[in-house]
Design brief:
Number of helices: 46
Protein name: SAPS-domain-containing protein
Family: Belongs to the SAPS family.
GO molecular function: protein phosphatase binding; protein phosphatase regulator activity
Largest sheet: 2 strands, antiparallel
Pfam families: SAPS
Shape: elongated
Oligomer: single chain
Distance between the termini: 100 Å
Keywords: Cell cycle
């Protein structure tokens, strides 16, 4: 028999035997995409035909009108998938058919809005072409200058915006050299920012804000590193990390977005008092500015990480040079990086500081608030998104100040400039805007909003973040600059003081300037904002609310607990930096009563477990045999597991009974002498992982009550007998394993917790019973056990000599 190596023919292959095969016939076949992705040679040749390419492109953007809607969608989808299959002959045919590609791009000539499905398919095909045919596509786009303006025209459409982001993300590839400069020349950023015009609709503002944030993200992310990570190219990752990071601080488009001209235009749109949609411009414009500040903070952290990696490598290399001789050493941050950090946000902070008065007016007189609105708490004047966004913007500026001032690279970030090129650095801008915060009383205004809206936790989180960062900055700078000449040993200095002592005199002066500015802002919070007084007042108000019927704890109380802790930490380090008025109140009766009583009670309550005290395993008693789980010594974890299975009825009953080893259980019982002290058994069989010291104490204290517990459960403590005695008295210990299991089941049923509890309930409800009367007679407990004469035998069972004598006398009298 001979094997045939000929490929089997498919239905689609049979179609090519037709003389006049139509594209629509192929598009109706269910296996078309599968065969195309399998690189069917007949299909590849067919779809590489220029006429077929033109038809496929037309089906995506301009399907024939005579087709019904279902076929339009189907043919558009299939055409898009065929052209996006990464098949090189088809991609080559597209790029060679320039006329068809020009007609394809006429799709963006249409008026807004574009049909979403067609826009998605149009985007997918072009992204594949930009990925695999980049030089040809860039030549085509640059050869038609109006294409970029048409893309910007439809930038509100997410699929079209993806094409612009793709052009930015490929800037690191050699074939795309100069693409960022070209986009900058085409004024992409000014065109996008102009869409924040407050006379445009809210949807446009939302889309433009998202696009600019995406541009930031793409500009800060290296596609080369991303590709190396995705392809597990470790050499590429190491090479990237060891070299200077090319995307540090973003690219030229991000620099343009942070320029003074662009930021001024954006803030002008945001603060327009007459335009109908200026609130929307403010909300979304603030989002873009916040993203820029956060990216800059990420640059500082990235520089710190690079420096840490470099220092760590140097230390390890000193210890063992041979170990790292083949490793590419990491590079520290470059001078260009520090220069960029020193000047990156100067224009942005300057513009914000110049318009701080208008932001203050917005906090006091929001444009979007027209009066109270109905809520579950009644009619309430809302905070409004615009005021929340302004507070978030202030919080980001304060966070930037904290991160900048406390950075271990502070002396290098404060870049020394040449006299002829000297510009205002970030230090000067931070000091200026901090002083304006103090002058305009911005933090007291935010504190007033905090207490005015007790149920807005978004606002509470933002204000708490501002206060915590200001207090931490103040504490850090006061500690770092509080040096004395009396200390000779540097090891006696704190980390902050060691860092400060190594700075140049000019840098120390700048840090002192920041410190003085922050102290003034902190004083404004404590004095003009009356933060401690408002906290005490809020606590009293909360206590009154909780006492009411169905009273609730006010929504800001959790944040006030954290803020109070921050005040305590601040005053413990910097009390001498503030006025006597503040210190007098902090040391006064009202604040101390709050700290020592209400705050301490709240913190103690917060430290407790949510579910209460952890249940103690010792309360789980095996009533059938009168033993605790810790009374046994287990030969293995399997024995412990099996015993736990038997005690809790966990798992399959039949499997548990078949697997239980009666002899092993009896030997376990007999190996633990019942006369051993319970305290000794506990400490021999317990571990620190099972109980902490408080639980041990509770367990030991409960041992004395164990006999009382057994007595309450059984009526007489002597009825807690083990199975070994039970078997010996009944059968003389002569039963085989199966019979023992049967008797054990009967015994366990008689002394089951459910049956005993039922007996206890009935006896405890009998008020006529004398207190001195002993527990239930054995007949009442064991009356339902009638097989193997167990009842008669148990009636004669004695546990000690005295009981045996009393039982025998009682029997004789009967």
């Amino acid at each position: 028999m001979f094997w045939s190596f000929a490929q089997p023919t498919t239905v689609i292959d049979d179609l090519f035997n037709q003389e006049d095969l139509q594209l629509e016939t192929l598009l109706e076949e269910d296996d078309l995409l599968q065969e195309c992705k399998a690189h069917n040679s007949n299909l590849i040749r067919y779809f590489s035909n220029p006429e077929i390419i033109k038809k496929l492109l037309n089906y995506i953007t301009n399907p024939p009108e005579e087709l019904d809607e279902l076929k339009k969608l189907k043919y558009s989808y299939l055409s898009c998938e065929i052209l996006s299959c990464d098949i090189w002959p088809i991609l080559d045919a597209i790029m060679e058919n320039t006329d068809a590609l020009v007609d394809f791009w006429k799709f963006v000539d249409r008026d807004e809005p574009l049909e979403i499905f067609q826009a998605s398919y149009f985007c997918k095909v072009n992204l594949v072409l930009l990925q695999y045919k980049l030089p040809e596509m860039l030549q085509f786009i640059r050869g038609h200058p109006d294409i970029l303006s048409k893309i910007l025209k439809h930038i509100s459409s997410s699929p079209i915006a993806e094409i612009l982001l793709k052009l930015i993300s490929i800037s690191d590839r050699e074939e795309a050299n100069g693409i960022i400069e070209w986009l900058q020349q085409e004024k992409v950023i000014p065109n996008l920012v102009s869409r924040f015009d407050p006379f445009l609709d809210d949807e446009t503002h939302t889309n433009i804000a998202n696009t600019l944030i995406d541009i930031n993200s793409v500009s800060y992310t290296s596609p080369l590193l991303t590709n190396d990570l995705l392809t597990a190219n470790i050499d590429g990752v190491n090479s990237f990390l060891s070299s200077s990071i090319t995307n540090f601080g973003g690219n030229a488009l991000v620099d343009e977005l942070k320029s003074k001209e662009i930021v001024e235009q954006l803030v002008k749109y945001m603060l327009d008092e007459k335009a109908p949609n200026s609130t929307s411009s403010l909300i979304h414009g603030t989002t873009v500015i916040i993203d820029l500040i956060r990216r800059y903070c990420g640059d500082i952290e990235q520089a710190e990480y690079q420096q840490h990696q470099y220092d760590h490598f140097q230390q390890e290399n000193i210890r063992d040079e041979n170990q790292y001789q083949d490793v590419v050493p990491p590079n520290p941050p470059t001078t260009a990086q520090f220069e960029k950090l020193s000047l990156a946000l100067n224009d942005l902070l300057n513009v914000l500081g110049n318009n701080l008065e208008k932001f203050e007016y917005l906090l006091l007189h929001p444009k979007s608030i027209n009066g109270p609105i109905p809520t579950t708490l009644g009619e309430v004047v809302p905070l409004g998104t615009e005021r929340l966004r302004v507070c978030e913007l202030f919080a980001e500026v304060i966070h930037l100040q904290y991160l900048y001032s406390s950075s271990p690279l502070f002396d290098r970030i404060v870049f020394e400039q040449k006299e002829e090129e000297k510009k205002r650095t970030l230090v000067e801008e931070l000091i200026t805007i901090t002083d304006k915060f103090t002058e305009r009383k911005m933090l007291p205004i935010c504190l007033n909003l905090f207490f005015e809206f007790p149920w807005n936790n978004f606002l509470h989180s933002v204000v708490y973040d501002m206060i915590a960062k200001i207090f931490n900055t103040c504490s850090y700078l006061v500690t770092a600059t509080n040096l004395t000449n009396e200390v000779d040993d540097e090891n006696q200095l704190s980390a902050e003081e060691q860092m400060f002592s190594s700075l140049s005199e000019e840098t120390k002066e700048r840090m002192n300037m920041i410190k003085n500015s922050v102290i003034k802002l902190t004083d404004s919070i404590l004095d003009e904002g009356q933060l401690p007084q408002k906290i005490v007042k809020a606590q009293k108000l909360n206590d009154e609310e909780e006492k009411k019927e169905k009273g609730l704890r006010l929504g800001y109380m959790g944040h006030l607990t954290h803020i109070s802790d921050e005040i305590c930490k601040l005053m413990s380090k910097c009390s001498n930096q503030f006025s006597d008025k503040i210190n007098d109140y902090i040391n006064g009766k009202d604040w101390n009563d709050y700290i020592n009583n209400s705050l301490q009670e709240t913190k103690n309550r917060d430290c407790q477990a949510l579910g209460g005290q952890r249940p103690n395993n010792d309360t789980i008693t095996n009533i059938s045999f009168g033993y605790q789980p810790q009374d046994f010594e287990y030969d293995s974890q399997e024995d412990q597991y099996r015993l736990n299975i038997g005690a809790t009825d966990f798992g399959d009953e039949e499997d548990d009974m078949n697997e239980f080893d009666v002899n092993g259980f009896e030997s376990m019982i007999s190996s633990n002498n019942s006369n051993r002290d319970s305290h000794e058994r506990f400490f021999e069989n317990s571990s620190e992982d099972e109980m902490d010291s408080s639980e041990e104490e509770d367990w030991i204290n409960g041992l004395d009550n164990q006999d009382k517990l057994d007595s309450n459960l059984l009526g007489q403590s002597e009825w807690t007998a083990d199975f070994s005695d039970f078997d010996n008295h009944i059968n003389g210990g002569s039963l085989d394993d199966q019979d023992k299991l049967n008797d054990w089941a009967n015994f366990d049923e008689a002394f089951s917790p459910d049956k005993i509890n039922a007996v206890n309930i009935s006896t405890s409800s009998n008020d006529s019973r004398d207190e001195n009367t002993s527990g239930l007679d054995k007949e009442n407990i064991l009356g339902d056990l009638d097989n193997n004469n167990i009842v008669d035998t148990l009636n004669n069972l004695t546990l000690d000599e005295k009981e045996s004598k009393d039982t025998n006398n009682e029997g004789d009298s009967k």
